[in-house]
Amino acid sequence: MEYKEFSVEDYKNILDLIGDNDRVLYGENISEDYSRDELGSVRVMPNVVVQALSAEEVSKVMKYAYNNNIPVTPRGSGTGLVGAAVPIKAGIVIDLSKMNKILELDEENLTLTVEPGVLLMEIGKYVEEFDLFYPPDPGEKTATIGGNISTNAGGMRAVKYGVTRDYVRGLEVVLPNGEIINIGGKVVKNSSGYALKDLIVGSEGTLGIVTKAVLRLLPLPKKAISLLIPFDTLDNAIETVPKIIKSKSIPTAIEFMQRAAIVAAEEFLKKPFPDNSSDAYLLLTFDGNSKEEIERTYEGVANICLESGALDVFISDTEERQEAIWSARGAFLEAIKALTTEMDEVDVVVPRNKVAEFVKFTHEVEESQDIRIKSFGHAGDGNLHIYILRDELNSEEWNNKLNNVMEILYKKSRELNGQVSGEHGIGFAKKPFLNESLPKESIEIMKGIKLAFDPKNILNPGKVCQ
Amino acid sequence: MEYKEFSVEDYKNILDLIGDNDRVLYGENISEDYSRDELGSVRVMPNVVVQALSAEEVSKVMKYAYNNNIPVTPRGSGTGLVGAAVPIKAGIVIDLSKMNKILELDEENLTLTVEPGVLLMEIGKYVEEFDLFYPPDPGEKTATIGGNISTNAGGMRAVKYGVTRDYVRGLEVVLPNGEIINIGGKVVKNSSGYALKDLIVGSEGTLGIVTKAVLRLLPLPKKAISLLIPFDTLDNAIETVPKIIKSKSIPTAIEFMQRAAIVAAEEFLKKPFPDNSSDAYLLLTFDGNSKEEIERTYEGVANICLESGALDVFISDTEERQEAIWSARGAFLEAIKALTTEMDEVDVVVPRNKVAEFVKFTHEVEESQDIRIKSFGHAGDGNLHIYILRDELNSEEWNNKLNNVMEILYKKSRELNGQVSGEHGIGFAKKPFLNESLPKESIEIMKGIKLAFDPKNILNPGKVCQ
């Protein structure tokens, strides 16, 4: 389908719809930030940016785009890693970051209703004041909740608590034709037709624009304790994880990390990590309502680790010590980025008992392909974040090598019954790998679903399955 | 779309595909059971029934049906309540109840792989031997897991543990064109394209036929305690529930029940209930890994109940006593059915703090419409099971009154921001109410999704959104 060539008339019409010069950016007034997301390897400038303040504004712009056949790309705070918020067909970017109000805390239904531009870190902070808890905990705390919903972000606590989709009860969505619909609500169960709510979650802004979300909260666990456990080799560390799972304790989080990432984070944050003398670490958290209950759980796990070759078990039971460890963990991405000129990432998820095999394989690839690869990730849920570093390669060498390494890694993931993305999504950058990974029937069905929502293919075109 | 008129040739061709006379039923050999589900108000005989033993057999039959334009309706053990398994366009019924093998318990990934015909009660029993736990707990334990997946069944423990969708990690599905695809797998997170797994769950056999499921397990809680709490009025009982939720304790289950249902269950089971002297009861369960931990949780809740007018708190901490109470709860549907000549049900879900208002409203409707209405249900998750009893009404009176009462009840549910079905689904019987309840855009999108999976509309036609 051909899109309309965007004209200054379109800009004026959109400006008329919004009626606020400051929130409709055109031409030179558009910051280069709007052309890219966090990784930056795909860049296209939009023709116009609308900083929306309400679902009604989103609806108006969407209707205009629909009637005039202009592509629209929704955007949160641009922390994505796969180009999902990049307007690859130009046209309109709707920036939702100013729709950032927390609308309602309902303590009787344990729900929080928010606008899409609220930042993840604000949600956590807000509900904790009421002794409540929003469990999803992706590393990137400056992401918007709308972005988290769009990628079905997972994060550290997925081992015990699941992912974003599990905490979305209801959505207000502007459809590609501009109509505003509500899906789900405050209800706990829902078997009323196809699972549109679950489908919108993780659809990366291609099926509708989320303008409001009803989130499910839990009571805040009264206490959390983290264990930092050094091992002499990464293999020993990761191979311990299936034993922990099998032991029937449920840690909140199980992360693995290597010395290189820790040292990079120390330098990046200018803060020492509690220990960096070992090659590899598991970092576990346990939460619960009493110290005794948590101790009972973690003691068994500590013993399993020691029996499997752990060199020590460092227990962090104060908020400060835990903050020191977890802020380092949260800085890994930025710290690794600072080590090199450019990088790209692989966010595969494999069954939990295949993590060790996959990480070992990345080390083989690092050698055979002569390129630096750094990884860390969620050992407890099988989701790995693997970074391929450009270093001093020229553009052609880098593109060739990167593509080759990715092909090799995704192939391995398929062999282990893994999936292309655990939580970062497909966006633009991972489309070829999704295509190779799924049966062609699944891709065709996804295209059909896209068509059901967006017959003119104007909402975030060229993403996910097209 | 016109379907092919089913002929004896079609029967012979299907028999050739399966090659087993005993599992391809035709004409007089088809039991009347295949024309109906548990409620029985919609009945249509199929032309042929295939009792499949494998995904390959399902695929062969589906391909034949696809090429010859014959409708196919999948069926588990027929315990549904909305006609989803009734072959309303006749044609082929594929009975999956003989695909009843538990295929693999994976203790490292905490998954159980099953065929769709495995009964819910078998899953619970099987995994408990390994100290593992499959949390979804619908009342109907003779339902197949395939049926539970098709309706996204919820059950008693949804308050703490969520619903069936939350425990399905992967599916093998035969598509309407007969192709077999795998969706998801043993992975814990997945953001690889649209959420086809979540969409198939709850689609009531209209998008594909589930031939294998990878279920997520949890460690079995070591201990459970139930509290049976009598109140002098149902209002007092139900109005306590939001206070319990707000108190930040998380019971596993919160059910409400009235004396009438208890007495009916006592008669039906020929077993006395621990107490039937009060008008209304809350039944709560708490689980955890130690008696102390559970006691700490339930003591607070018991106090809230007593402050809100509870007459007593009966604690059941032995398996026998809990079994006695919960088996009565499990028999409510059958027991109410035995009270009357025929009945139909409403399975609305409302926000948890609206349950009391809705139940009060059913009492008003009972009076104003001069018809007996019995209800019980999941007070903790807002999902009510409301039964409208025919008693001595003639067919015309019954149909008119039933339809009128349903209209009134679903209208009230919409006013309270509820949904048509919490867990029983839409099937055939609830289509008009889904249509009234959802925005027309949502229904159109659902039709488009159906088309993406089933362009010839041969799989379970006339259900959910069509």
What labels describe this entry?
16 helices, Uridine Diphospho-n-acetylenolpyruvylglucosamine Reductase, domain 2, 35% helix, Uridine Diphospho-n-acetylenolpyruvylglucosamine Reductase, domain 3, FAD (chains A, B), oxidoreductase (chains A, B), flavoprotein (chains A, B), FAD-bd_PCMH_sub2 (chains A, B), Vanillyl_alc_oxidase_C-sub2 (chains A, B), homodimer, Alpha-Beta Plaits, 466 residues, alpha+beta
How would you characterize the overall build of this protein?
Two copies of one chain form a homodimer. Chain A is of the alpha+beta class. Chain A folds into four domains: 8-98, 2-Layer Sandwich (Uridine Diphospho-n-acetylenolpyruvylglucosamine Reductase, domain 2), CATH 3.30.43.10; 102-219, Uridine Diphospho-n-acetylenolpyruvylglucosamine Reductase, domain 3 (2-Layer Sandwich), CATH 3.30.465; 223-333, Alpha-Beta Plaits (2-Layer Sandwich), CATH 3.30.70; 340-429, 2-Layer Sandwich (Alpha-Beta Plaits), CATH 3.30.70. Chain A is built from 16 helices and 18 strands. Chain A has helices at residues 8-18, 55-68, 120-128, 145-151, 158-161, 196-200, 234-239, 241-246, 259-269, 291-307, 319-330, 332-337, 355-368, 395-415, 431-437, 440-453, and strands spanning 24-26, 48-51, 72-75, 92-95, 102-106, 111-114, 132-133, 168-174, 180-184, 209-216, 218-219, 223-231, 253-258, 280-288, 314-316, 343-346, 373-378, 383-389. In chain A, the strands form five sheets. The first copy, chain A, has a five-stranded antiparallel sheet with strand order 5-6-10-8-9. In chain A, strands 1-2-4-3 form a four-stranded mixed sheet, covered by helices on one side. In chain A, helix 13 (355-368) runs antiparallel to helix 14 (395-415). The first copy, chain A, is globular and about 70 Å long. The model of chain A has no long low-confidence stretch (mean pLDDT 95). Chains A and B meet through strand 9, helix 6, strand 11, helix 8 and helix 10 of A and strand 9, helix 6, strand 11, helix 8 and helix 10 of B. Chains A, B: It comes from Clostridium saudiense. Chains A, B: Its cofactor is FAD. Chains A, B: Keywords: FAD, Flavoprotein, Oxidoreductase. Chains A, B: InterPro entries: FAD-bd_oxidored_4_C, FAD-bd_PCMH, FAD-bd_PCMH-like_sf, FAD-bd_PCMH_sub1, FAD-bd_PCMH_sub2, FAD-linked_Oxase-like_C, FAD-linked_OxidoTrans_Type4, Oxid_FAD_bind_N.
